[in-house]
Automatic annotation (TrEMBL):
Residues 7-299 form the Amidohydrolase-related domain. Gene3D superfamilies: Metal-dependent hydrolases. It comes from Intestinirhabdus alba. GO terms for molecular function: hydrolase activity. Pfam families: Amidohydro_2 (PF04909). InterPro entries: Amidohydro-rel, Metal_Hydrolase, Metallo-dep_Lactonases. Belongs to the metallo-dependent hydrolases superfamily. This is Amidohydrolase family protein.
């Protein structure tokens, strides 16, 4: 199995007791795809992450916005740069940016000035079910004001991290077509929550549609299921089909920790990913665990054997 360096392409650090994460407040429980998430309402910093990673050689990580108070998106960017300066992690940042807000031009210019910011994320909402999407409910990806904000990303050489369920990937495909020079990174494997044969067939078709555009890559992550422990057996097919669709040069593994600690231990997650792709060529495995995240997020780090 792969034993080389890993860049975790999607994870979070936080200190809910001192920072403004409304959804992590002690008295708050929002509807959440993994159910009760009270267990993650605790401080989680690089030392915690590296302890959880155990034997796996995670040499760098990508911090993704963690629903910090949207009234102060730059506060989160400032905070995480402080963490990086003191701890050496994370090594790239996906910052918060609400693309349809009136101040988006100024905000993107400000976010782009921070040395670790490579991308932004704004979950575009939309339909809660495939049926709602079929009936015409659209996400913000079809909103003209939101798209005007998206158009500004190219100016600042920023990528866009997209978290949306597969039934909105037709909109994502139009976005990729209309803005071919902006890199889109699809989070959490397109959220294939419905594991029925019909659900997975629809997810696969949607993934194939958006993968037609070369400026779309995918993070293989966020595959937990409510009330069901993460396992190789339950996730092998999804991982391999995502790789068959996007190829080993447009996909990367990520943990979504500490969120996915609700479903799996970090050591077991990395071991599971390694088992699923153990038959691939060594260069393909390295691309998935290290090279692609390093390239797409512009991470300036050398693994031990290259130092």
């Amino acid at each position: 199995m792969y034993n080389g360096p890993i860049i975790d392409a999607h994870q979070h650090f936080w200190e809910p007791d001192i920072n403004p994460h409304p959804w992590l407040a002690k008295e708050v429980l929002i509807p959440f795809r993994y159910g009760d998430y009270s267990a993650i309402k605790r401080r989680y910093l690089p030392s915690d992450y590296l302890a959880d990673a155990g034997e796996h050689r995670v040499v760098a990580s990508v911090y993704v916005d963690a629903e910090w108070d949207p009234r102060d998106p730059l506060g989160e960017t400032r905070y995480i740069h402080g963490v990086a300066q003191s701890c050496g992690f994370p090594n790239a940042v996906v910052a918060q940016a609400w693309l349809h807000h009136a101040d988006i031009a100024d905000l993107l210019a400000a976010q782009a000035q921070w040395p670790l910011v490579r991308s932004v994320r704004h979950k575009p909402g939309g339909a809660a079910t495939p049926q709602e999407a079929k009936s015409g409910t659209r996400s913000l990806m079809s909103d003209e004001r939101w798209r005007q904000g998206f158009a500004l990303l190219q100016k600042h050489r920023l990528h866009f991290d997209l978290q949306t369920p597969w039934w909105h990937l037709d909109e994502a495909a139009r976005l990729a077509r209309d803005f071919p020079t902006t890199q889109i990174i699809l989070n959490h494997t397109g959220l294939p929550a419905d594991r029925s044969p019909e659900g997975l067939a629809a997810w696969k078709a949607a993934m194939k549609h958006v993968a037609k555009y070369d400026n779309v890559a995918v993070k293989i992550s966020g595959l937990g299921e409510k009330g069901i422990p993460w396992s190789v057996e339950r996730n092998r097919r999804i991982v391999r089909e995502a790789l068959a669709i996007f190829g080993s040069q447009r996909a990367m593994f990520a943990s979504n920790f500490p969120v996915d600690s609700l479903c799996v231990r970090l050591e077991d997650l990395w071991r599971g990913f390694k088992q699923i792709v153990a038959d691939l060529a060594p260069q393909a495995q390295r691309a998935l665990f290290y090279d692609n995240a390093r390239r797409l997020y512009g991470i300036d780090t050398q693994p031990p054997e290259e130092a």
